[in-house]
Each structure stands twice: as C-alpha cells, then as structure tokens.
Amino acid sequence: MDSFRVSLVAWMMVVALVGGLSTCGGNGGSELVSLEKGTAALTTTENVKSNLTALSDVLQFVEDFMLAQKAFDSMAFSGTDCYSAPRFDPETGEETGEYVEECEETEPEDEDIEVNLDEVAQDIVDELNKRVFVDSQIEEETGTSVTYLLSPAVFCAEDEEEGGAPDKKPADDISDPLAPEAEECLDEEECGEDSEDCAEFLDKVPVRLKFTSPAEGEIEVDILVGAEKAHVFRLEFYKDILAIEIDWAEAKAAIEVITKAFEAEDEDTILPDVLEGVVRLELKRDAAGKFTLSLVVKEALKEELTVDGETYLIEVGPGSISATADKDSQTITFSADLGKVVMSFPYQLLVDASYEEDEEGGESAPLMPDDKADSTGEPESEAPKVSGTVTVQLSGYSFTASAQAKSESFDLTNVGLGAETSFVKVNGDTIFSLDLNPADGRTFDLNVALDGDDNVTWTMSPKFDLSLLWNLAKVADDMKDVPESMLSETWRFLVDGGTAQKILFGESDDGRLLKMLEGKLTISSTAAPAETVVVDAGMCLFGEEDEGEAPQTPDGPNLPADDPSPDEDGHELLSSFQVGTCE
Q1: Distance of alpha carbon 276 from alpha carbon 114, whole angstroms
Q2: Nearest residue to 120 via CA among 58, 44, 52
Q3: Distance (Å, rounded) from C-alpha 181 to C-alpha 83?
Q4: Which of 170, 346, 472, 513 makes the best surface tag, with the fewest CB within 10 Å?
Q5: Are 19 and 245 within 8 A, CB to CB?
Q6: CA distance 444 to 465
Q7: Three-class SS of residue 276?
C-alpha cells in the first residue's frame, strides 16, 4: 500500500519541479454550457481519439527522417530477455510450487521507425469507459457538471489477464519448463498488489472527477481529493487541445490531504514549507496537419522544505520548450527558452557524498587531496562536520532546431546557456562556473549533418567558446581527494577560425576522436599553458591510450609498451589528448 501512495505523492512533487500538468477556476469565470453524463463521456473520448489519431497521421512522415532512422539504428544493442515459469517435476509433470527464471542473450536488430497512436488512443478510451464513465460512480449531476466519485471496486478492478499465478503448462509438456509465454509474476502474493494498493488509497482518500464544459464540444475535468475536495489539477479535452495544467499552490493543499490520511502509517513524511508556480503541458492542433506539443512554466516554480533544521530550495523561472510537426512541409521544429534554475542545499550533503561508498561496495570517486590522512597514516573514512549552503545556478537553456524529412542534416540556432554565468557556490564562494561564448552574445549556431560515409559533421558559427572555472581549493580541506587539476584553474575549449568551423566525428581505424575540417580547436588550462592542445584544420585529435597498451602516435610508430609516455607527468586533462595526422 505504501508504494502506491508514495509513488502518487512523489509524482506530484516531481512534476512540480520538471514538468507540467489549470488552476481551480480554469474557465476564467465564463458561463458553463449544459452538460449531462452521456455528453461528458462521448465528448471526452471523441476529443481524445480525434486528436491522437490526427497526430498519428501527421507523424507518419517521421518514418522518412533519415537522421532519425540512423540514430534509431545506432541505438540498437544486444540485451537479455528474461522470463519466469513454474518448475515442473520431470517425472510427474506436476508443478513443484517453485518458480525459476531463465535469461537469453539477444542480438541487436535493425528496425524501422513506426509511429502509430491509434491503438494508444483506443486504449485510453477503453480505460475511461471501463474505469471512469460508469453510472454507479456518478455522485452528482447539476445540469452544467457531472461529478464521478471513484469507486475502488470499479476504478481499481484488475484486468482479466492481470493477477494470479502464472499460467500452468500442460502436465504432458515437460520438455521445456521455462515457457517464454509464462507470466512474469514469481510470487503469487505480489500478483495484484497494485490493485490492492489502489483500492486502499481510494478507501482513505476519496477522489472525484468533476466534468464541466466551457463551450460546446469541449470538456474540462477538475481532479479533487479528500472530503475537503482539494483541487489537484485540471485536464482539458478540447476539439484541438489536450492539456493538463497545475497550480502548485493549490496542489499543496491536496498533498497535505493525502499525507494526513496516512500520517499514522508514515510519521516521517516531510511536506514543503513553500510550493508554488503554474505549469502546463499541452498538445495543440494548430491547423490541419500541424501539431505542437509544449511544456510551459507559466509562473515561476518554487519548492522549499526544511529537514532537521536545514533548508532545501529549488526555483525554476518562467520558460517553455516545444516541438511542432508539420505534415505539409515535412518538418519538425524544436524550440526551448528555459528560465533560470536555482537550487540550494546543505553543504554537509556534498561533503558526505564525497565519502560515501558506491552501490558496488567500493569507494566513491576521489574528491579530497591524497595527503588527507588520520594519525595512523590511513585515509580518513568519515566526513568532517561542516556548516553552510551550496547554491547551484543554471542560468538558462535555449535553442531552436529544424529538421526536414529525407534530409541528412538539421540546424540549431541560438544555442545558449542563459544570459549569465552558471555556477556552484559554497557559502558564497564560487567553486565552479561555466561560461559559453561570453563575448559573442552567449549563443552559437550549429549544423549537424551526415557525410557520404555516415560520419557526423558539426559546423559552428560564429565560434564555440566554453570556459570551465574550477576552484575546489575552497573546499579541499573538507572533501575527499579533490583532483589537483580542479583546485584552481580554468579549462577552455575554443573552436574558432573563419566565419564557420567544421568538425568530423565518427568511427575510424586509427582511434581518432575527431577531425578538424575547417577552423581550429584549442584546449587549454590556465595552470598549464605550455601544454595547450591545438588541432589545426586537417589534423585529428586522439584520446588517451588504454592502460597496458602501447601508446599510439599518429605521426609515427608505436612506442614500446614499457616505455613511459612523454605525457605521463603532464596535466591531467591535456595529457589525455594527442594531436596527429589522420589516416
């Protein structure tokens, strides 16, 4: 039961931070049109089906996107198929009561991109008709609204194929006791658990769906929880719009209702002190053959909570991200203009993380100088107690991208990371910062294309200039094994030269990372200017050799395996690169 409730509350909290789901008066006070149960059900399901099937038709041209298909093929990988089945006695053919699991390695398969939302639309309609639009759940009809009170017996009912033990194999078929078609439920007690959790939740927290119609052919649904009918969010089923929007200041009350209902079972639940902001996720039919999916932070999001006297905070500024598919022009356009994101949390959390063991039982990545040791000469194993706050700011994110079917390239314009420097600070001191093209409007343009050998090329303008400032010396006394190259220096990755620069990526026999076709790549550090890496046009950049292998020299023969690399004592970052001629 706890898993269902926790998942629901967690889902509501996470969406507040990263996504969107209208405020409780969503029709803006406009007069509602008359509505009865049959119309509510029919209009809702018709609008779902109409929009999704039309979108499916629009997206058929995506199957002709050459870049998307090649990217899809490149993601094909071998994996493992596992299935479970009851164990059978080899002599009697009877079930032993035990279950076994067998896994088989699978080879990657090339598959074509297929877009078909018709079945998805029908599944949604079937679920609504089965679990919501049931007369026994109608609580109230007013002439302009229909309210359904969800019944555990109806809304949480298991499908016929769900729950119960795996299907039994015939007693005379014992040649292969691990039938792939067997159910994947190893424990009968776990089968149907979700349904039981759902029913117990609805028993403690009544959930109502209030249907209204702001205009002919359009439906709005307010989700209300508890006896208080606290508003959670609103769904919109319009002729040309499917949307979900939430005002998190209102939803906070709903979260409190849910938490209160289960406080006897979970006394440690921590509710936010502040939760506010409005977010909207919308699918809109802009015209025949054209749809836009958008996520909009309409009002700044803010969540603040206190745990053991320490404050945790996240703020997300207004912004949006969207994708538009146009069947007539055979194009997909993406755009993003995301607002500033600010997070703060106790410094102790960061210090503790540097001392924690990873899930495999080994130690975490080093974050403190190697000479940090206790009186026995052994490395310290417990994090020191510290005070203060870590503040993280991502100043924004923006781009516009356009791609056309059957084209082997796409363009991104105004790619940027906000109008300010992004940073991490501890007690006001900057320990890391990031700047992109600070002298060139903080944006750049990028064309991504495939050449005749299916290698990827990037063409950038006016240039790409990324600076990473490291100042972990400020926290080195508290952290475990801070790399020397991050104590106090700035790394710079600069691609410039001419009006545009072009880089070739792709697999090669010589192990190169990239080849400069036009312009110049410079990788540098303020701590080691003499080791600056420069890749001129026509040259290639190679990575560090694997340990134990002979270092490869693109310009000449391999060095002997026992011969120390000339970069052995060099800068940690810069010495990992080599520049040479390309094969």
Answers
A1: 39
A2: 52
A3: 8
A4: 170
A5: no
A6: 9
A7: strand
For residue 544, give every residue at least 6 positions away whose Cβ sits within 8 Å of its Cβ, in sequence order, or none: 575, 576, 577, 578
Token pair recorded at residue 177 = 């006791």
- Which amino acid is it at 418? G
What pLDDT does 112 receive? 60
The β-bridge partners of 416 are: 398, 443
CA separation for the pair 441, 416 (Å, rounded): 9
Tokens of 330: 């055979």
Q: In which residue ranges of the chain is pLDDT below 50?
A: 1-29, 76-78, 162-188, 358-377, 546-567
pLDDT on residue 214: 95
pLDDT of residue 167: 42
d(CA 438, CA 298): 28
Domain ranges of the chain: 507-583
Phi/psi of residue 507, each to 5°? Answer: -65, 145
pLDDT reported for residue 191? 53
CB 521 within 8 A of CB 494: yes
> What is the pLDDT, as a whole number, of residue 85?
73
Q: Which residue has the tokens 């006896």?
A: 227
Task: Please write down the long-range contacts of 224-230, taking CB distance under 8 Å and 24 or more positions apart.
Answer: 225/254, 225/257, 225/258, 226/254, 226/257, 226/258, 226/261, 228/253, 228/257, 230/254, 230/256, 230/257
What does the pLDDT read at residue 271? Answer: 87
β pairing state of 397-404 and 409-416 = antiparallel
The span from the CA of 546 to the CA of 204, in Å, is: 59
User: Residues 59, 325: contact at Cβ < 8 Å?
Assistant: yes
Nearest-CA neighbor of 319 among 392, 418, 424, 433? 418
CB 310 within 8 A of CB 346: yes
Residues 6+ away with beta carbon under 8 Å from 327: 57, 58, 60, 61, 289, 290
The pair of structure tokens assigned to 552 is 């490869």
- Structural tokens at position 90: 């080899």
Between CA 400 and CA 103 the distance in angstroms is 44
Q: Which strand (E) or helix (H) includes residue 410? A: strand 409-416
Provide the CA 536 distance to its chain's centre, in angstroms.
Answer: 37
Angle at 210 between CA 205 and CA 214, to 5 degrees: 155
Cα separation, 529 vs 267, in Å, equals: 57
pTM of this structure: 0.76
Helix or strand holding residue 491 (H, E): strand 489-496
CA-CA distance, 52 to 196, in Å (whole number)?
Answer: 31
Query: For residue 466, how many C-alpha atoms fall within 13 Å in the half-sphere facing its CB?
Result: 10
**Helical ranges in 440-553 per DSSP H:** none
pLDDT confidence of residue 357: 53
Tokens representing 150? 């969800």
